[in-house]
Amino acid sequence: MAETTANGTPVVELRNMRKSYDVGRPNETEVLHGIDLVLHRGDFCAVMGPSGSGKSTLLNLIGLLDHPTSGSIAISGQETTTLDDAALTRLRGHSIGFVFQYHHLLTAFTALENVMMPMLGDQEFANAAMTERAAALIDTVGLTPWRDRLVGQLSGGQEQRVAVARALAMKPALLLADEPTGNLDTTSADAVFTLLRKVNAEEGTTVLFVTHNPLLAARCDRTIDVVDGRTVSRA
Amino acid sequence: MAVSSGAAPAEPVHVATTVAPQPFARWLPFEWIVAIRFLREGRVQTAFIIGGVALGVAVIVFMSALITGLQSSLIQRVLTGIPHIQLTPRKDIVRALRDTAAGMREGAVMQAPLQRLKGIDQWQSVVAQVGAMPEVVVASPAVAGSAVVIRGDVSRVIGLTGMIPDLYYRVVALPDKIVKGVSRLDGTDIMIGTELAADLGIGVGDKLNVTGTGGATTTLTVTGIFDLGNKYVNQRSTFVALRTAQTLVALPGGVTSIDITVHDVYAADVIAQRIMSSADVQADSWITTNAQFFTAITAQTISMNAIRFFVGLSVAFGIASVLVVSVVQKSREIGILRAMGISRGQVLRVFLLQGVVLGLGGALAGSLLGFVGLTAWMQLTRAADGSSLFTLELSAGLFAWTLGLATLTGLVAAVVPALRAARLDPVVAING
Question: What sign does the dihedral A212-A215-A220-A224 (CA atoms) show?
């Protein structure tokens, strides 16, 4: 799948992106060495690689949670390396959804409220619209009977599905999933993966999916291997 | 249902029609909702810190009301029998004669002059001038001197105060001190203290021969007997009409003092200085004439403020420490909030608001606790006759001030933890 956005702009475009830690110190280490990557609307791409190869760093950079040492990152055509923190936060909130290996849900809130949280923080949603969308997403991930429970009362698989629903709350163009099935049993992992595929297929959401599971990677449209800070693309 | 555990979804993603309950009051901003939920989630921790703040606030409320009440009571008692400011003629002084050519004094030893009884020059205009000052409640002219009262073969030396009752009673609430008779004072009337009445064996309606230092003698009728709360004063003090006193001390048309009441008793010293700078009189405030008493009151106020400060400081540290722990506990959640597009400012406000809520909540509970403590105190501490030892100052202002200060303390205490939360790197926070 290689669609583009309405105006033909890639959802993600990395050009010669490098990332180093401890810059300017004797122990400076470059972990990503000139990454080039283009993801279009509707891409479902797996990222594989051994631990410490730079997968999570890559995801954090694409997710605008971290800054590259050099190179450029464009999200939906918007060059991000020149943006300040407030603009990055806004762009991240509106364009990118995250699902992590650990769900990181807010334990003080119910499942429904967790899904509402990004919309609540955005302040642009009316209460009814916000509630309606969150309820729809909860329904989508099959948790309507549990939506008013505190997330601590849900199973691991259910929590991760709430995290997926939350990541979709702002209708992001890009969904970044960092080993979302890593802590789940096979059945739950399959349910979460299927959910991501469905979102990708029906909403056209671009999904970048980090996994160690070759079976799940095989079910993606495309796989990128990250090896020693470099990407190797395979069909 | 689109997805269930263990089964692939069959239904499309699109919008469900379920009408969900309204989980948030949308009129509450995001920051308020998250702050309150975070506090509610750690309810034991929240309860303990609110309890700690409440105890601190209760101590401040209790101490403030107690000490302020005690001070007010003491000041009221002191000021009951004296004017806030008293104007008197300037004292005569001796000026050394000099030989201007040689620059030497003619007399090496100077004798202090005798202070004759004399009146205030142009006292009517001074009364009018002082009475027109906005800080002044009333200015009451008076004549003070000595006299001898004789009844049968008993005589006593007394202090005589002549005044205009309508004015003087606004300076000293003499009618409130009358234990027998009335506070009326015509030209032939006199009011005496309980001790003098007992010494002379007289009561209301009896007559007294009074001989003033000016040599004049007159017969006056006792119209009232007062108790000023001091045996010596009750033995010596008497009150007559202004003209009667002027005659007895041989100061016709003159007054020896002008007694003044002001709105703000603590400003009496400053007002006295202003009067002295504009009129040819000696002006002494109650603060000057009761310097030791005022110093004690000031020291008490400083002590109270020190206690308030240190209690406030401990409250602030308590709130700050709880919030610092909370930031550590919530760092992953803060990280994911930042990843979701929540700004640093919003995270900052979430923790500032927690400080405000802890401060305000503790202050409300502490105010209630302080009020209960004060009420119990008033019930338990009573004088021998069953009356209150003194009136406690339970003003709305005290509670409003305490609430405001505690809330501000909570806000200030939350600044460091809130900044720490806002500055968290989302990547580091999420990865723990």
Answer: positive
